[in-house]
Amino acid sequence: MTEPQILWYEQPAQEAITEGLPLGNGHLGLLVLGDPAHERLVLNESTLFDGGPYSPANPASRDSLGKVRELIFQGDFRLAAMVAESTMMGQPKKQLPYQPLGDLYLDFPRHENYSQYRRELNLETAIASTCYVAFGVEFTRELFVSYADKVLVARFACSTPGALSCVLRLSSEQRGLYDWQDDAERAYGVERLVMRGRNREKRGIEGALRFEFAADLRLEGGRALPGEDSLSVRSATSLVLVGAAATNYRRYNDLSQDPRAVVEERLARAATLTYEELRARHVDEYAALYGRFHIDLGTVTTQALKPTDQRIVEFQRGQDPALCALYVQYARYLTLACSRPSSQPSNLQGIWNDKRRPPWGGKYTININTEMNYWPAHPGNLAECTEPLFALVEDLAETGSLTAKVQYGARGFVVHHNTDLWRATAPVDGVEWGLWPTGGAWLCLHLWEHYQFTRSLPHLERAYPLLKGAAEFFVDSLVIDPKSHFLVTCPSISPENQHPHGSAVCAGPAMDMAILRDLFSATIEAAKILNRDPAFCDVLAEKRAMLAPYRVGKAGQLMEWQDDWDLEAPEPHHRHVSHLFGLHPSCQISPHKTPELAAAAKKTLELRGDFATGWSLAWKVNFWARLGDAERAYQLLCLLLHPERSYTNLFDAHPPFQIDGNFGGAAGILEMLIQSEPGRIHLLPALPRAWPKGTVRGVRARGAISVDFAWESAHITSASFRSSVDQEVWLVLHSSNPVKLSFTAGEVVALERSDIGCNQGVQSPP
Description:
Layout: E1 6-9, H1 16-19, E2 21-24, E3 28-32, E4 38-45, H2 60-74, H3 77-87, E5 102-107, E6 115-122, E7 127-134, E8 137-146, E9 151-158, E10 164-171, E11 185-188, E12 192-198, E13 210-220, E14 223-226, E15 231-236, E16 238-247, H4 259-270, H5 275-290, E17 294-296, H6 308-314, H7 321-338, E18 364-365, H8 369-373, H9 387-408, E19 418-419, H10 431-434, H11 439-454, H12 457-477, E20 479-480, E21 487-488, H13 510-530, H14 534-546, H15 595-608, H16 614-626, H17 630-640, H18 660-673, E22 674-677, E23 680-683, E24 694-701, E25 705-712, E26 715-723, E27 727-732, E28 739-743, E29 748-751, H19 753-757
Parallel strand pairs: 23-27
Antiparallel strand pairs: 1-6, 2-3, 3-4, 4-5, 5-10, 6-7, 7-8, 8-9, 9-16, 10-15, 11-12, 12-13, 13-16, 14-15, 17-24, 18-19, 20-21, 22-23, 24-25, 25-26, 26-29, 27-28
Helix pairs in contact: 2-3, 7-18, 9-11, 9-12, 11-12, 11-13, 12-13, 13-14, 16-17, 16-18, 17-18
């Protein structure tokens, strides 16, 4: 029995976000509900946000900065927060939300009574399908969103010639192109549906985006009849819709694109291709990326053949290891669907949103959530999908340089805890959330991670100015803590947690110090590789040595703040565990390098507790995997795959829906199977009893190494490696001592069972 890489259901979706099947190509997103009588296709375009270009930097901040720091160091945190709230918040105080494009409805008369229903999403082809029987006729639907041709394609067909009739209409909550129209303009021609309009004003920022969606109809038999607010198809055998969408957005400061011209060009190109050609081109392009990676977590049981919603409900019985493998592949599928070169990065909801007021604005929360969206991309062999994140950082380096200068009087650039389509970088929402200056620094570490996984020098050339710019800001803005005499960030917060003195505002939270250790180290190493800026590297090395170190508190925990406040904090089980950044995603803390700090991190997790929101559970899976506690990691994975934290379409429930938990949970599963850092690969570091045998192929490790391996009875039975560069790497196997492997670029190094058995007792790595 092979593992089916599908999500499938025996009933239509009732709710779009929690039950609809997601499709996308990074630019255009689609949710398919699959109702036989009343199909609803939720449309999203990745650049459709409210408002227009704006700069929220607050000039009052620079004058009050010294006062806020003084109050923090004096211990008057409440007053420091009040001063910061009135002088340091961005203008406006909140950012602008992601928006739905609209809906395409298809009503099918006489389809209310149906049987033999099945709705599915095939992860291997990225095609959603629905089939059922109504009045003795079999009806089928296939939908996909092609990256190859930048179009949505939907085919509706029936088994009896001439039995297909439907009514199509478009709807949008956005504004029309003309001031006197409340709704977006809709046009219905005999062969085309068109919806065009513009976005809305928000927080005093006038709407500046124009959008267009159009879909061409291809009929086999029958005819199309335009109506006043709909288009009817009568007595057809099949209907193919080919749609495209665009806005006038080029960059955060350039709205010169002609959305109509873009849509026309895409539809004209697609018109030269048959449905079969469009489908084949889509599948070929998608499968070439998706098919690089394979994961099998043991015997596929009959549970894997059940509907996905039933599998989620029954997963806690422990008889469905294939659901964990499917969860990893689903995250890879979602990555390909919502983050592609030239698209926007994956936001809080990926690319899928049906609300004018989406949860948390549907934007980019960069104190964990945006970063978590990209954790499985590199190990999951989808490095290309990180390109939109790097383009985001390049934009933020521009807008963040103004914020650094205006609000801090510093060089380089700074980004706080949120950003949006317009690349706003000032503190927002309130000091308890927004007064955190290391968001841009964390994003820059993803640039360094990309180099670690690919060893691409052209990428490093691109990344270095961004690393340097982020580091320059902290060279200028770090201050000496008068009590400890270490360098600290001030003001800052430990996201998004309050300490016991009635505020979140503080100096030098552990997370900041960990991020800056990695940022300074990465910038120094990148500069040395590229032979750049030796004097600046000396400055960074000096600053790095002066950063406040990790500290262990009175309960044996890793301290979240510079003072030992953890046990008195008002939310002892707070969802953010930011001070364990050094354990994951960083490699600063580990049982084999820093056992005392690893023990303190473990104590922190025990004190914080297991239960949390979806993304927080996902992060904790990664933490426990890094600590080597397989059963605790698996226990939290089971909580994540519980119906309270996974909707029927496997979207993560914060609640409500946030996509970061999907990506973080998948990354956690991979961390249980393989961990890597420069010069070291560990196979099966946290293998739970639930996965006694399995296979992984095409997983990527730091050092630009591709790894295939298999295990049985929890022991590695075979492993092969291919490195892109010449190097030596220590291999740590689950059940044997470390092995030193020498790689020649491009050659395969393979270990069979006999080789692995002979490697007992070899020299341990330093």
